[in-house]
């Protein structure tokens, strides 16, 4: 009997903030069904809604039982692929989500720890992306909007699941979006897809992260 192919879960988001597309889903969905190092990619699109996004995420985790889960979101204004280090237990929305909710100073998970760190090998991923000519950085904050909400919820869900790694990656605008935001940096979704392939391959092969200076002074 053939053993089942292990799964890697990648999630993106629906459009929000007046945009008609979201490059996180464009880049993620392009990888659906691909195999990387003997692992099958499964993708899901999450709603940009507090609460509902975590319901969708938990359902995706139950359906796919992944060995690795990476959530991807858009961060318009950022110039590089941003490998997130930490998720914090707070929702503080500058704008309403797609359902009209705008929580202020509320916990993502009541009674949860103040923060969770990504358990992806983010420094090794950073090195792999830069070696491939893809601009990348380590980010010390995932914000306080739905992306951080999902990042925190993911790590909270995985806290009792042995051997499953998880984390979050922010990406810039797509070029078509940046054209409507003069001066904003961008990356084509095809480049982001390639970055995600490298990120997944690195996470599947690097057990212990490398030591590489990638912090910030401020």
How would you summarize the topology of this molecule?
Blueprint: E1 7-13, H1 23-29, E2 35-36, E3 39-46, H2 52-64, E4 68-74, E5 81-84, E6 86-88, E7 115-117, H3 122-131, E8 136-139, H4 146-158, E9 165-171, H5 175-178, H6 189-205
Parallel strand pairs: 1-3, 1-4, 4-9, 5-8
Antiparallel strand pairs: 2-3, 5-9, 6-7
Helix pairs in contact: 1-6, 2-4, 3-6
Kindly describe this structure.
- The protein has 218 residues and is α/β, with parallel strands linked by helices.
- The chain is 29% helix and 21% strand.
- The protein is built from six helices and nine strands, in the order βαββαββββαβαβαα.
- It has helices at residues 23-29, 52-64, 122-131, 146-158, 175-178, 189-205; strands at residues 7-13, 35-36, 39-46, 68-74, 81-84, 86-88, 115-117, 136-139, 165-171.
- The strands form two sheets. It has a seven-stranded mixed beta sheet, sandwiched between helices. Strands 6-7 form a two-stranded antiparallel ribbon.
- A hairpin with a 2-residue loop joins β2 and β3 (39-46).
- The longest helix is centred in the C-terminal third of the chain and has 17 residues, at 189-205.
- It is globular and about 50 Å long.
- The model has no long low-confidence stretch (mean pLDDT 96).
Cα(first) to Cα(last) distance is 55 Å
Q: Give me the count of strands.
A: 9
Strand order within the widest beta sheet:
2-3-1-4-9-5-8
Which sequence of SSEs, written as H and E, runs from N to C?
EHEEHEEEEHEHEHH
Which consecutive residue ranges, at least 5 long each, have pLDDT under 50?
A: none
Work out the helix count: 6
Helical proportion, percent range: 25-40%
Radius of gyration: 16 Å
Shape: globular
Largest sheet features: 7 strands, mixed
Mean pLDDT: 96
Strand content: 15-25%
